[in-house]
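Problem: given the chain below (173 residues), write out its structure.
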Amino acid sequence: MLVARLPKHDIHRLASRQLSDYDAGTPGTLFAGETRLSIGEAYQLQIEVSQLRRQRGERLVGYKVGCTSTVIQRQLGIDRPVFGALFHTERHVTASRVSSSKYDHLAIEGELADNVVRSLRWLADELPRHGLRLRPAQIVLTGSLMGLIPIAPDSRVLVDAGRLGTAEIEVCR
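Solution.
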């Protein structure tokens, strides 16, 4: 398991602040200043935020693997894939409408099936390092080979995957 350099009480304080910012519709505010974390500290923070969300009744439905391609890693200035928790409150069916104000630098990435095996193997190896594991019926979003595409408010995104179907989302202010 990766261990954070920050004491547990600092991680809890930052997690409470990050969740408050998220709830207030100002995600990312915590990191607008001088707050800098190592990868290990960032994962500890994410785990603490996840625990706070579960304590208030939100249900973890899976994980998002991101930055699986070198294109996106270069775009974001990192050198490895990352993962994040996915909660039922963030799972949107097609034709949903979301508010851009709830996101910081909202973007989409086209996820492709050939990433599935590689992403699943990476996630299955990475989660135990943080005291986590995949559970039956959890969702895994696998990342993209292409770069992130910024989405502006008042946009409509339609993804056509041929015989697999379409997905659509509307982004409002």
